[in-house]
Amino acid sequence: MRLTPATELEYRCSTLQKYMIEASIDAVIIIQNADLFYFTGTIQSGNLYIPAQGQPLYMVRKDWGRARMESGLRDVVPFRSMKDIPGVLADHGYAVPQRIGFELDVLPVNFFDRYRQVFSEAEYVDATPLIRKVRMIKSHYEIHLMQDAADQVDKVYRRVHEVLRVGMTDLDLAAELEFIARKNGHQGLVRMRGFNSELLFGHVFSGTDSAVPSYSDTPLGGLGCTPSFGQGAGLKRIEANEPLIVDFAGCVDGYLVDQTRVFAIGGLSERLCKGYDDMLKVQERMKELVQPGTPWGVVYDECLSLAERMGYADAFMGGSGSQVSFIGHGLGIEIDEYPFIARGFHSMTLEVGMAFAFEPKLVFPGEGAVGIENTFYISNEGLKQLTHSNEKISILMP
Amino acid sequence: MRLTPATELEYRCSTLQKYMIEASIDAVIIIQNADLFYFTGTIQSGNLYIPAQGQPLYMVRKDWGRARMESGLRDVVPFRSMKDIPGVLADHGYAVPQRIGFELDVLPVNFFDRYRQVFSEAEYVDATPLIRKVRMIKSHYEIHLMQDAADQVDKVYRRVHEVLRVGMTDLDLAAELEFIARKNGHQGLVRMRGFNSELLFGHVFSGTDSAVPSYSDTPLGGLGCTPSFGQGAGLKRIEANEPLIVDFAGCVDGYLVDQTRVFAIGGLSERLCKGYDDMLKVQERMKELVQPGTPWGVVYDECLSLAERMGYADAFMGGSGSQVSFIGHGLGIEIDEYPFIARGFHSMTLEVGMAFAFEPKLVFPGEGAVGIENTFYISNEGLKQLTHSNEKISILMP
């Protein structure tokens, strides 16, 4: 268990402040857990007040003692009620902010209305695009955590070889893999920022179930074990000669990596094997395209175009009618961070320090899905791959 | 795996419509997963439009085919974009709503702004209090699901007896119990409605770690395995002669129960044993108080008063400085539903059909926590207890 170094927090805060000044924002108030963890090193309940210039002030409702222990910030103070905020700010010498940034993509309406009463004269802007811009560039410290998460997910991958048997359900296998992840320190929670977005450790499903679309914004969906959470592993029994997808998010000290591998007991049809090899080619194409300065959308367009030329217009990134408009996604504390390797993102470019998962996948309804996913990092020396499990389809004996 | 019967959906919808007419609301638009599941039987991504009179219309973005299979609603139609909503409504003969209810406690600001553009002439109200009122009265169907969840959590409880050993970490034990829950169909996700509220299967922690407060709005917190998710099981090794808390939420077909039991290897101090027995007395006091017509806050006040008279003013429902202002909470699809057995709720009364967890607990910093939690249901024949694991402290041999 690591505590985020104070120097990390200082750098993150000063980077946000640079963007705030460019956007003429006087102060940003951060309350969402993922952002709190990034800027304070903890998620103790409270408000992090970041002025455009000067020290951040972390006002903590519960638990203040823990916040002081876990956060490297200098100013961590107790507070009780939202309406105390202006007084606490004045006590610490902060001017009344005129233009305040909030996390408007996640902040519920009722919650926001209470802030509007507290700062009734202020103008409000969405701070999330700025926060996303700071968070999308990973430090060496963050990459080290993600390397540990890659080792964890490799243990999960290796466990599949030990426990996979014909006749077990997808849910049985998922339970085994989640167990290994937890034993290796996975926090259990995989954070997604999008409203209504939910994800367990990942998706483990076989054969026809791997081709079932779901409500989630993912290329593969899965039936799940109940319509109340209709994604991921369900009660289908694993058979020989069908694809088994293990799409699993490792998580160490709050940082995620995402990896997908395909297994089969016996073997797979020529169509699926060829499809898998072709997805490896899409991954190779991505590696050629990715460099600082490349627009996110160009990587998407070029890789989609390759998949279409290979004959997968109706199967790439989801079954026909359920295809998603991305092939990759940034990740770190949340699994849906910048950059988005997605349709339309032509004005934002790849930069050194970005980490992203890339997941070219094919869905053949009635047969199953194949594909690969790895987590990458753009270093000063070029693209580095963080997840490192064997990339061949794992064929197990029946 | 059950599909919600259409008759259930019809009754739920008509009950909401009754409240809508009382509140002069023309239409409610439901999008949050828990509410979607309750009113449609699935969570496929979309908008459920409920007019004050007439049939609900479920407009589904992804995946429409699954929504048609999983939902017992009559009108399930595909749609692509929020701005198509007025056209789809007109096509189905609905008048333009003047006063619309949204789930304003969970709907993010940016999302809401897009609805305001679509319905630019309308007035907006918070529909969540009405939705909560409908959801707080459970049907027999819902109680049956919760009975199954109670059986599941009893299996988890029994598993503790098989695997608990001196020297294993709290996280090791949590992983074992989560494994059993998943093998028995637990969906993995425990839904909480509150913003920033997060919960894994529950809280498993021992000795001093069980007395660590956290950011979560729960009587016990726990250190967790990382400050990025600082609650629940951490890396502390379980020793003899200290309390082990297993607070676990069972979940079957989307419905939750909540149960807490105390274990110890060897034995426990007289103070902890007496504290536990006293919490059983608080539970008995609750049973005397609960009947249709009793205000929620009266149950809270009377039980708090009893705990204070027994000398636990500083230990009841959290350690000094971290005490929460509730002793029980409604539950069903989410773990924070109506009724709240909490401070101040004097205008709302208990009714037949309500289900709630009641969890009197004591925290002794530096030593550990003890307490009990069960899930109850107010039937026509009085209070029934759903969770049924043995209520004695489980003392295991070293």
Automatic annotation (TrEMBL), chains A, B:
CDD domains: APP_MetAP. Pfam families: Creatinase_N, Peptidase_M24. SUPFAM superfamilies: Creatinase/aminopeptidase (SSF55920), Creatinase/prolidase N-terminal domain (SSF53092). Residues 145-379 form the Peptidase M24 domain. Residues 12-137 form the Creatinase N-terminal domain. InterPro entries: Creatin/AminoP/Spt16_N, Creatinase/aminopeptidase-like, Creatinase_N, Pept_M24, Peptidase_M24B. This is Xaa-Pro peptidase family protein.
